[in-house]
Design a protein that fits this description.
alpha/beta; 10 helices; 16% strand; binds pyridoxine-5'-phosphate
Length: 246
């Protein structure tokens, strides 16, 4: 059964709307863990628009599960990762002008730089994961650069405009994760997943963990973070959950 790692970047985004000290993503991480999350994810962006270095250090010190650090494959970020030593680093493409990560990392175009980052991270005892599109050539390249994990980008599946496109994207995901698993890569999946569309991925047994942020934090605004995380875990485990206030 797949696990759930909760991305708490959006809590920091709300904090940065006022540039004060609340709400704190570190508190959100602790609450997510208490609700049963298997891990916590943050993206330390080069412009520090939401998560700050302080958050990263405090998370490393306080969380009880696993810390997955999303970051660009740059010298500055690799240096920080080697100091903080999260459980896993997920290398992602990063553009300053984007609202959120757009598309997976192009491993073929960036092979040299990614190979070097993966080697440094692994030498430092950190699991190296690569956020890539569900594409066989990208998966094979992830294997060639000695990554431990891939995180398959589910954005196109989630944004599909009709059933035909959704089926096509689902098929790409299934083919890719099967290839990754065959190559003994660990498999995570994420981006754009919510309480509805995740149901179609639950039968894809190769996926070890889902990485979810926006939909959980959005629901938390209305039902509270504890309930929002519990509901997502129940969905992933195909369990029923006691409704709020009963
Ligand atoms: N995985 C990666 C690599 C991401 O960049 C993000 C967004 O920060 C997510 C997963 C989570 O996506 P969402 O917020 O749409 O659930």
């Amino acid at each position: 059964m797949a696990g759930l790692s909760v991305n708490v970047d959006h809590v920091a985004t709300i904090r940065e709307a006022r540039r004060i000290n609340e709400p704190d993503p570190v508190t959100a991480a602790a609450m997510s863990e208490l609700a049963g999350a298997d891990g916590i994810i943050v993206h330390l962006r080069e412009d520090r628009r939401h998560i700050k270095d302080r958050d990263l250090w405090l998370l490393k010190e306080t969380i009880k599960t696993k810390l997955n650090l999303e970051m660009a494959s740059t010298e500055e970020m690799v240096k920080i990762a080697l100091e903080v030593k999260p459980h896993m680093v997920t290398l992602v493409p990063e553009k300053r002008e984007e609202l959120t990560t757009e598309g997976g990392l192009d491993l073929i175009a960036n092979k040299e730089r990614v190979t070097e980052s993966v080697a440094l991270l692994r030498e430092g005892g950190i699991l190296a994961s690569l956020f890539i599109d569900p594409d066989i050539d990208q998966i094979k390249t992830a294997h060639r650069v000695s990554a431990d994990f891939v995180e398959v980008h589910t954005g196109r599946f989630c944004d599909a405009e009709d059933r035909v496109e959704e089926e096509k994207e689902l098929e790409r995901i299934i083919t890719s994760v099967r290839m990754a698993s065959k190559l003994r890569l660990g498999v995570n999946a994420g981006h754009g997943l919510n309480y509805q569309n995740i149901k179609r991925l639950l039968g894809v047994n190769e996926i070890e963990e889902f990485s979810i942020g926006h939909s959980i934090i959005s629901r938390a605004v209305f039902v509270g973070l504890d309930q929002a995380v519990r509901e997502m875990i129940a969905l992933i485990r195909c369990e029923t959950i006691r409704p709020l206030n009963t």
